[in-house]
Fold IspG TIM-barrel domain-containing protein.
Amino acid sequence: MHFQPVIAQLVADAVEKIRINPGNFADGRKDFEEKVYETEDDYIQEREYLFDAMLPLVEKCKSLNRAMRIGTNHGSLSSRVLSFYGDTPRGMVESAIEFADICRSQDYHNFVFSMKASNPLVMVQSYRLLAAEQYRLGWDYPLHLGVTEAGEGEDGRMKSAVGIGTLLADGLGDTIRVSLTEDPEFEYEPCNRLAEIADSRLAKNEDAKKRQEAVKTYVDTRDITSYKRRHGDLPAAKEGDAVDVSGFLHKDGAVIAEVSPEMLSAENSQYLYQQLGCKTAVGMPFKDIATVDSIFMREVPSSDDTAARTALRRLIEVSMGVVVPAEVLEKDPVPNAVALMELEDALEKNGELPEGAIRLAVTVHGDESDETLAKIKDLNPAMIFLKVSPDLSQLHASRRVFEILKKEGITTGIVHHYQTDTDDSNELAL
Protein backbone atom coordinates (compact mmCIF):
# COMPACT_ATOMS: atom_id res chain seq x y z
CA MET A 1 0.00 0.00 0.00
CA HIS A 2 1.44 3.35 -1.10
CA PHE A 3 1.05 6.67 0.71
CA GLN A 4 -2.11 5.71 2.62
CA PRO A 5 -1.60 3.88 5.96
CA VAL A 6 -5.34 4.18 6.68
CA ILE A 7 -6.27 2.37 3.47
CA ALA A 8 -3.70 -0.31 4.26
CA GLN A 9 -5.65 -1.12 7.42
CA LEU A 10 -8.88 -1.46 5.44
CA VAL A 11 -7.19 -3.75 2.92
CA ALA A 12 -5.85 -5.92 5.75
CA ASP A 13 -9.47 -6.76 6.60
CA ALA A 14 -9.96 -8.33 3.19
CA VAL A 15 -6.73 -10.06 2.12
CA GLU A 16 -4.29 -12.56 3.62
CA LYS A 17 -1.11 -10.64 2.85
CA ILE A 18 -0.25 -7.03 2.10
CA ARG A 19 2.88 -5.31 0.87
CA ILE A 20 4.11 -1.99 2.15
CA ASN A 21 6.91 0.09 0.64
CA PRO A 22 8.95 1.78 3.39
CA GLY A 23 9.90 4.46 0.88
CA ASN A 24 6.39 5.88 0.59
CA PHE A 25 4.22 4.26 3.24
CA ALA A 26 4.65 7.02 5.80
CA ASP A 27 7.04 9.64 4.51
CA GLY A 28 7.07 8.99 0.78
CA ARG A 29 5.09 12.15 0.01
CA LYS A 30 8.09 14.11 1.27
CA ASP A 31 5.78 16.47 3.15
CA PHE A 32 8.24 17.19 5.92
CA GLU A 33 11.10 19.62 5.55
CA GLU A 34 14.11 18.47 3.59
CA LYS A 35 17.14 18.49 5.85
CA VAL A 36 20.65 17.18 6.26
CA TYR A 37 21.16 14.89 9.24
CA GLU A 38 24.46 15.69 10.93
CA THR A 39 24.49 12.54 13.08
CA GLU A 40 22.81 9.15 13.18
CA ASP A 41 20.99 10.21 16.35
CA ASP A 42 19.36 13.08 14.43
CA TYR A 43 18.26 10.60 11.78
CA ILE A 44 16.86 8.11 14.31
CA GLN A 45 14.75 10.79 16.02
CA GLU A 46 12.49 10.86 12.95
CA ARG A 47 11.52 7.22 13.57
CA GLU A 48 8.82 8.24 16.02
CA TYR A 49 6.77 9.51 13.08
CA LEU A 50 7.15 6.17 11.30
CA PHE A 51 6.21 4.25 14.45
CA ASP A 52 2.96 6.17 14.87
CA ALA A 53 2.00 5.59 11.21
CA MET A 54 2.93 1.91 11.15
CA LEU A 55 1.70 0.74 14.56
CA PRO A 56 -2.06 0.46 13.78
CA LEU A 57 -1.37 -1.68 10.71
CA VAL A 58 0.98 -3.97 12.63
CA GLU A 59 -1.58 -4.43 15.39
CA LYS A 60 -4.33 -5.27 12.89
CA CYS A 61 -2.17 -7.73 10.94
CA LYS A 62 -1.17 -9.42 14.17
CA SER A 63 -4.74 -9.68 15.45
CA LEU A 64 -6.05 -11.04 12.13
CA ASN A 65 -3.01 -13.24 11.48
CA ARG A 66 -2.25 -11.41 8.24
CA ALA A 67 1.14 -11.66 6.54
CA MET A 68 3.13 -8.64 5.39
CA ARG A 69 5.91 -8.01 2.89
CA ILE A 70 8.23 -5.14 3.73
CA GLY A 71 9.21 -4.36 0.16
CA THR A 72 11.85 -1.70 -0.34
CA ASN A 73 12.29 -0.39 -3.88
CA HIS A 74 15.47 1.28 -5.08
CA GLY A 75 13.51 3.76 -7.15
CA SER A 76 11.28 5.03 -4.33
CA LEU A 77 13.39 5.57 -1.23
CA SER A 78 12.01 8.23 1.10
CA SER A 79 13.54 11.69 1.24
CA ARG A 80 14.58 10.95 4.82
CA VAL A 81 16.62 7.91 3.77
CA LEU A 82 18.01 9.69 0.72
CA SER A 83 19.15 12.58 2.91
CA PHE A 84 21.18 10.32 5.19
CA TYR A 85 22.23 7.28 3.13
CA GLY A 86 21.83 8.51 -0.42
CA ASP A 87 20.47 6.39 -3.24
CA THR A 88 22.33 3.28 -2.07
CA PRO A 89 21.75 -0.39 -1.22
CA ARG A 90 22.62 0.45 2.38
CA GLY A 91 19.75 2.94 2.44
CA MET A 92 17.37 0.26 1.13
CA VAL A 93 18.40 -2.14 3.87
CA GLU A 94 18.21 0.39 6.69
CA SER A 95 14.78 1.51 5.49
CA ALA A 96 13.47 -2.06 5.70
CA ILE A 97 15.16 -2.82 9.01
CA GLU A 98 13.55 0.09 10.84
CA PHE A 99 10.09 -1.02 9.69
CA ALA A 100 10.93 -4.55 10.82
CA ASP A 101 11.95 -3.13 14.20
CA ILE A 102 8.45 -1.68 14.57
CA CYS A 103 6.93 -5.09 13.79
CA ARG A 104 9.21 -6.85 16.24
CA SER A 105 8.47 -4.31 18.98
CA GLN A 106 4.88 -5.60 18.88
CA ASP A 107 5.95 -9.26 18.77
CA TYR A 108 4.72 -9.49 15.17
CA HIS A 109 6.93 -11.74 13.05
CA ASN A 110 4.69 -12.78 10.16
CA PHE A 111 6.56 -10.75 7.55
CA VAL A 112 9.06 -11.16 4.72
CA PHE A 113 11.57 -8.80 3.10
CA SER A 114 12.16 -7.78 -0.49
CA MET A 115 14.86 -5.46 -1.90
CA LYS A 116 13.84 -4.86 -5.49
CA ALA A 117 15.63 -2.72 -8.06
CA SER A 118 15.58 -2.50 -11.85
CA ASN A 119 19.38 -2.78 -11.85
CA PRO A 120 20.19 -6.42 -10.99
CA LEU A 121 23.61 -5.49 -9.57
CA VAL A 122 22.04 -3.06 -7.09
CA MET A 123 19.42 -5.67 -6.29
CA VAL A 124 22.02 -8.38 -5.59
CA GLN A 125 24.08 -6.11 -3.35
CA SER A 126 20.98 -5.02 -1.43
CA TYR A 127 19.86 -8.57 -0.68
CA ARG A 128 23.37 -9.61 0.33
CA LEU A 129 23.59 -6.62 2.64
CA LEU A 130 20.22 -7.51 4.14
CA ALA A 131 21.25 -11.14 4.63
CA ALA A 132 24.46 -10.01 6.35
CA GLU A 133 22.51 -7.61 8.57
CA GLN A 134 20.00 -10.32 9.50
CA TYR A 135 22.89 -12.63 10.39
CA ARG A 136 24.43 -9.93 12.57
CA LEU A 137 21.12 -9.33 14.34
CA GLY A 138 20.31 -13.01 14.72
CA TRP A 139 17.23 -12.74 12.49
CA ASP A 140 16.02 -15.23 9.91
CA TYR A 141 13.05 -13.67 8.11
CA PRO A 142 12.24 -14.95 4.59
CA LEU A 143 13.45 -13.16 1.46
CA HIS A 144 11.27 -12.61 -1.61
CA LEU A 145 13.48 -12.07 -4.68
CA GLY A 146 12.70 -10.06 -7.78
CA VAL A 147 14.08 -7.57 -10.31
CA THR A 148 11.67 -4.65 -10.78
CA GLU A 149 10.65 -3.87 -14.36
CA ALA A 150 13.11 -6.36 -15.82
CA GLY A 151 11.76 -5.74 -19.32
CA GLU A 152 10.66 -8.19 -21.99
CA GLY A 153 12.08 -10.92 -24.17
CA GLU A 154 15.67 -12.02 -23.71
CA ASP A 155 16.64 -8.81 -21.89
CA GLY A 156 14.02 -9.28 -19.20
CA ARG A 157 14.89 -12.91 -18.72
CA MET A 158 18.63 -12.24 -18.57
CA LYS A 159 18.25 -9.41 -16.04
CA SER A 160 16.09 -11.66 -13.88
CA ALA A 161 18.62 -14.48 -14.15
CA VAL A 162 21.51 -12.19 -13.21
CA GLY A 163 19.68 -10.89 -10.14
CA ILE A 164 17.53 -13.78 -8.93
CA GLY A 165 19.84 -16.54 -10.16
CA THR A 166 22.90 -15.07 -8.46
CA LEU A 167 21.17 -14.93 -5.09
CA LEU A 168 19.65 -18.39 -5.43
CA ALA A 169 23.15 -19.70 -6.17
CA ASP A 170 24.26 -18.09 -2.90
CA GLY A 171 21.51 -19.97 -1.09
CA LEU A 172 19.49 -16.79 -0.52
CA GLY A 173 15.79 -16.49 -1.29
CA ASP A 174 12.57 -18.19 -0.23
CA THR A 175 10.13 -17.02 -2.89
CA ILE A 176 10.77 -15.45 -6.30
CA ARG A 177 8.93 -13.55 -9.01
CA VAL A 178 10.10 -12.75 -12.52
CA SER A 179 8.55 -9.38 -13.47
CA LEU A 180 8.31 -9.00 -17.24
CA THR A 181 6.61 -6.31 -19.30
CA GLU A 182 4.64 -9.08 -20.99
CA ASP A 183 1.31 -10.71 -20.24
CA PRO A 184 1.44 -12.21 -16.73
CA GLU A 185 1.16 -15.82 -17.90
CA PHE A 186 4.55 -15.51 -19.62
CA GLU A 187 6.25 -14.84 -16.28
CA TYR A 188 5.65 -18.34 -14.95
CA GLU A 189 7.94 -20.33 -17.24
CA PRO A 190 11.20 -18.39 -16.63
CA CYS A 191 10.35 -18.08 -12.93
CA ASN A 192 9.78 -21.82 -12.60
CA ARG A 193 12.91 -22.60 -14.61
CA LEU A 194 15.09 -20.42 -12.37
CA ALA A 195 13.75 -22.28 -9.36
CA GLU A 196 14.48 -25.63 -11.03
CA ILE A 197 18.03 -24.61 -11.89
CA ALA A 198 18.64 -23.45 -8.33
CA ASP A 199 17.21 -26.65 -6.84
CA SER A 200 19.45 -28.75 -9.08
CA ARG A 201 22.55 -26.97 -7.74
CA LEU A 202 21.81 -26.78 -4.03
CA ALA A 203 23.36 -29.21 -1.56
CA LYS A 204 19.99 -30.85 -0.85
CA ASN A 205 20.31 -32.37 -4.33
CA GLU A 206 22.59 -35.40 -3.94
CA ASP A 207 24.33 -34.94 -7.31
CA ALA A 208 24.89 -31.25 -6.59
CA LYS A 209 26.22 -32.11 -3.14
CA LYS A 210 28.78 -34.48 -4.67
CA ARG A 211 29.90 -31.79 -7.12
CA GLN A 212 30.29 -29.27 -4.29
CA GLU A 213 32.25 -31.71 -2.14
CA ALA A 214 34.52 -32.50 -5.11
CA VAL A 215 35.81 -28.90 -5.15
CA LYS A 216 39.11 -28.57 -3.32
CA THR A 217 38.97 -26.70 -0.01
CA TYR A 218 39.47 -22.95 -0.23
CA VAL A 219 38.95 -19.87 1.93
CA ASP A 220 36.34 -17.41 0.64
CA THR A 221 37.52 -13.86 1.35
CA ARG A 222 34.91 -11.99 -0.69
CA ASP A 223 33.28 -9.02 1.00
CA ILE A 224 29.63 -9.82 0.32
CA THR A 225 28.52 -6.46 1.73
CA SER A 226 29.98 -4.56 -1.20
CA TYR A 227 29.82 -5.03 -4.95
CA LYS A 228 33.14 -4.53 -6.64
CA ARG A 229 34.13 -6.06 -9.93
CA ARG A 230 37.37 -7.95 -10.25
CA HIS A 231 40.00 -5.96 -12.13
CA GLY A 232 41.21 -7.88 -15.16
CA ASP A 233 44.17 -6.62 -17.16
CA LEU A 234 43.99 -6.27 -20.93
CA PRO A 235 46.71 -8.08 -22.91
CA ALA A 236 49.82 -5.92 -22.78
CA ALA A 237 51.72 -4.81 -25.86
CA LYS A 238 55.23 -6.13 -26.49
CA GLU A 239 57.98 -4.82 -28.70
CA GLY A 240 57.60 -6.19 -32.19
CA ASP A 241 53.84 -6.83 -32.04
CA ALA A 242 52.29 -6.60 -35.48
CA VAL A 243 48.78 -5.92 -34.13
CA ASP A 244 47.19 -4.18 -31.14
CA VAL A 245 46.59 -7.06 -28.72
CA SER A 246 44.89 -4.87 -26.11
CA GLY A 247 41.72 -5.01 -28.21
CA PHE A 248 41.44 -8.78 -27.78
CA LEU A 249 39.53 -8.15 -24.51
CA HIS A 250 37.50 -5.23 -23.15
CA LYS A 251 37.91 -3.63 -19.73
CA ASP A 252 34.13 -3.63 -19.14
CA GLY A 253 33.69 -7.28 -20.10
CA ALA A 254 34.69 -9.08 -23.27
CA VAL A 255 32.51 -10.89 -25.80
CA ILE A 256 33.94 -13.86 -27.68
CA ALA A 257 32.04 -15.51 -30.54
CA GLU A 258 32.65 -18.92 -32.08
CA VAL A 259 33.32 -18.85 -35.83
CA SER A 260 33.72 -21.73 -38.28
CA PRO A 261 35.95 -21.70 -41.40
CA GLU A 262 32.86 -21.74 -43.63
CA MET A 263 31.73 -18.40 -42.18
CA LEU A 264 34.92 -16.78 -43.52
CA SER A 265 34.33 -17.80 -47.14
CA ALA A 266 34.11 -15.19 -49.89
CA GLU A 267 30.31 -15.42 -50.06
CA ASN A 268 29.84 -15.29 -46.28
CA SER A 269 32.53 -12.92 -44.99
CA GLN A 270 30.53 -9.69 -45.35
CA TYR A 271 27.61 -11.23 -43.49
CA LEU A 272 30.03 -12.45 -40.81
CA TYR A 273 31.42 -8.93 -40.34
CA GLN A 274 27.87 -7.71 -39.79
CA GLN A 275 27.11 -10.52 -37.32
CA LEU A 276 30.26 -9.70 -35.35
CA GLY A 277 29.11 -6.09 -35.02
CA CYS A 278 31.78 -4.63 -37.30
CA LYS A 279 31.40 -1.45 -39.27
CA THR A 280 32.48 -1.81 -42.89
CA ALA A 281 33.90 0.56 -45.47
CA VAL A 282 34.63 -0.60 -49.00
CA GLY A 283 34.16 -4.16 -47.77
CA MET A 284 36.75 -3.77 -45.00
CA PRO A 285 35.74 -4.44 -41.36
CA PHE A 286 36.32 -1.97 -38.54
CA LYS A 287 35.75 -2.40 -34.83
CA ASP A 288 32.98 -0.45 -33.12
CA ILE A 289 31.71 -0.22 -29.54
CA ALA A 290 29.31 -3.11 -30.19
CA THR A 291 31.84 -5.32 -32.00
CA VAL A 292 32.83 -8.73 -30.67
CA ASP A 293 36.25 -8.50 -29.02
CA SER A 294 37.64 -11.88 -30.10
CA ILE A 295 36.55 -14.97 -31.99
CA PHE A 296 37.15 -18.62 -31.13
CA MET A 297 37.85 -21.17 -33.87
CA ARG A 298 38.04 -24.92 -33.32
CA GLU A 299 39.33 -25.28 -36.89
CA VAL A 300 40.93 -22.76 -39.24
CA PRO A 301 40.69 -22.34 -43.02
CA SER A 302 43.31 -24.24 -44.98
CA SER A 303 46.32 -22.21 -46.04
CA ASP A 304 45.25 -22.40 -49.71
CA ASP A 305 41.80 -20.90 -48.99
CA THR A 306 42.84 -17.38 -49.93
CA ALA A 307 39.46 -15.70 -49.42
CA ALA A 308 38.90 -17.12 -45.93
CA ARG A 309 42.48 -16.40 -44.88
CA THR A 310 42.12 -12.82 -46.12
CA ALA A 311 38.92 -12.32 -44.12
CA LEU A 312 40.66 -13.71 -41.04
CA ARG A 313 43.67 -11.44 -41.52
CA ARG A 314 41.42 -8.38 -41.86
CA LEU A 315 39.76 -9.15 -38.53
CA ILE A 316 43.11 -9.56 -36.80
CA GLU A 317 44.38 -6.29 -38.29
CA VAL A 318 41.54 -4.36 -36.61
CA SER A 319 42.54 -5.78 -33.21
CA MET A 320 40.11 -8.68 -33.06
CA GLY A 321 41.63 -11.64 -31.28
CA VAL A 322 41.52 -15.03 -33.00
CA VAL A 323 41.75 -17.78 -30.37
CA VAL A 324 42.61 -21.23 -31.72
CA PRO A 325 43.64 -24.48 -29.97
CA ALA A 326 47.42 -24.79 -30.08
CA GLU A 327 47.31 -28.25 -31.68
CA VAL A 328 45.34 -26.78 -34.61
CA LEU A 329 47.84 -23.96 -35.08
CA GLU A 330 50.70 -26.46 -35.10
CA LYS A 331 49.17 -28.01 -38.23
CA ASP A 332 47.85 -24.80 -39.86
CA PRO A 333 49.62 -21.69 -38.53
CA VAL A 334 47.66 -18.42 -38.41
CA PRO A 335 49.80 -15.30 -38.10
CA ASN A 336 49.08 -13.31 -34.91
CA ALA A 337 46.56 -15.81 -33.54
CA VAL A 338 46.16 -16.57 -29.83
CA ALA A 339 47.15 -20.17 -29.03
CA LEU A 340 44.83 -21.85 -26.51
CA MET A 341 46.40 -24.59 -24.36
CA GLU A 342 45.40 -26.63 -21.36
CA LEU A 343 47.22 -25.16 -18.36
CA GLU A 344 49.11 -28.40 -17.71
CA ASP A 345 50.29 -28.54 -21.34
CA ALA A 346 51.36 -24.90 -21.33
CA LEU A 347 53.42 -25.45 -18.18
CA GLU A 348 54.99 -28.58 -19.64
CA LYS A 349 55.98 -26.65 -22.78
CA ASN A 350 57.04 -23.65 -20.69
CA GLY A 351 54.61 -21.44 -22.61
CA GLU A 352 56.23 -22.06 -26.00
CA LEU A 353 53.92 -20.88 -28.78
CA PRO A 354 53.17 -22.53 -32.13
CA GLU A 355 54.56 -20.90 -35.25
CA GLY A 356 53.00 -17.48 -35.94
CA ALA A 357 51.01 -17.23 -32.69
CA ILE A 358 51.27 -13.86 -30.95
CA ARG A 359 49.99 -14.73 -27.47
CA LEU A 360 49.07 -17.61 -25.19
CA ALA A 361 45.69 -18.35 -23.60
CA VAL A 362 45.23 -21.14 -21.06
CA THR A 363 42.24 -23.25 -20.07
CA VAL A 364 41.67 -24.16 -16.42
CA HIS A 365 38.99 -26.50 -15.11
CA GLY A 366 38.90 -25.73 -11.39
CA ASP A 367 40.35 -29.08 -10.32
CA GLU A 368 43.98 -27.95 -10.50
CA SER A 369 46.03 -27.70 -7.32
CA ASP A 370 46.70 -24.34 -5.72
CA GLU A 371 50.35 -24.65 -6.73
CA THR A 372 49.50 -25.31 -10.37
CA LEU A 373 47.15 -22.34 -10.59
CA ALA A 374 49.79 -20.12 -9.01
CA LYS A 375 52.16 -20.95 -11.89
CA ILE A 376 49.90 -19.08 -14.31
CA LYS A 377 51.85 -15.98 -13.29
CA ASP A 378 55.02 -17.45 -14.87
CA LEU A 379 53.23 -18.03 -18.18
CA ASN A 380 51.77 -14.50 -18.38
CA PRO A 381 48.92 -15.51 -20.73
CA ALA A 382 46.78 -12.96 -22.58
CA MET A 383 43.62 -14.51 -21.14
CA ILE A 384 42.38 -17.42 -19.05
CA PHE A 385 39.47 -19.61 -20.15
CA LEU A 386 37.61 -20.95 -17.11
CA LYS A 387 35.86 -24.13 -18.24
CA VAL A 388 34.73 -25.87 -15.07
CA SER A 389 34.75 -29.66 -15.10
CA PRO A 390 31.21 -31.14 -15.14
CA ASP A 391 32.19 -33.16 -12.05
CA LEU A 392 32.52 -29.94 -10.03
CA SER A 393 30.11 -27.29 -8.80
CA GLN A 394 30.34 -24.44 -11.32
CA LEU A 395 29.84 -21.81 -8.62
CA HIS A 396 32.24 -23.13 -6.00
CA ALA A 397 34.98 -24.17 -8.42
CA SER A 398 34.88 -20.74 -10.08
CA ARG A 399 35.08 -18.94 -6.75
CA ARG A 400 38.01 -21.11 -5.70
CA VAL A 401 39.91 -20.21 -8.88
CA PHE A 402 39.22 -16.50 -8.39
CA GLU A 403 40.34 -16.71 -4.76
CA ILE A 404 43.66 -18.33 -5.67
CA LEU A 405 44.32 -15.87 -8.48
CA LYS A 406 43.61 -12.98 -6.12
CA LYS A 407 45.93 -14.43 -3.51
CA GLU A 408 48.71 -14.79 -6.09
CA GLY A 409 48.17 -11.30 -7.52
CA ILE A 410 47.23 -12.65 -10.95
CA THR A 411 45.05 -10.10 -12.75
CA THR A 412 44.84 -11.75 -16.17
CA GLY A 413 41.46 -11.36 -17.85
CA ILE A 414 39.19 -14.38 -17.38
CA VAL A 415 36.68 -15.71 -19.91
CA HIS A 416 33.92 -17.99 -18.59
CA HIS A 417 33.69 -20.89 -21.04
CA TYR A 418 30.33 -22.53 -20.46
CA GLN A 419 28.86 -25.21 -22.71
CA THR A 420 25.18 -26.10 -22.74
CA ASP A 421 23.16 -28.82 -24.41
CA THR A 422 20.36 -26.51 -25.58
CA ASP A 423 19.99 -23.94 -28.33
CA ASP A 424 16.69 -22.57 -26.99
CA SER A 425 17.11 -18.79 -26.67
CA ASN A 426 14.90 -18.49 -23.58
CA GLU A 427 16.79 -21.28 -21.84
CA LEU A 428 20.14 -19.72 -22.75
CA ALA A 429 18.97 -16.34 -21.44
CA LEU A 430 18.45 -17.92 -18.01
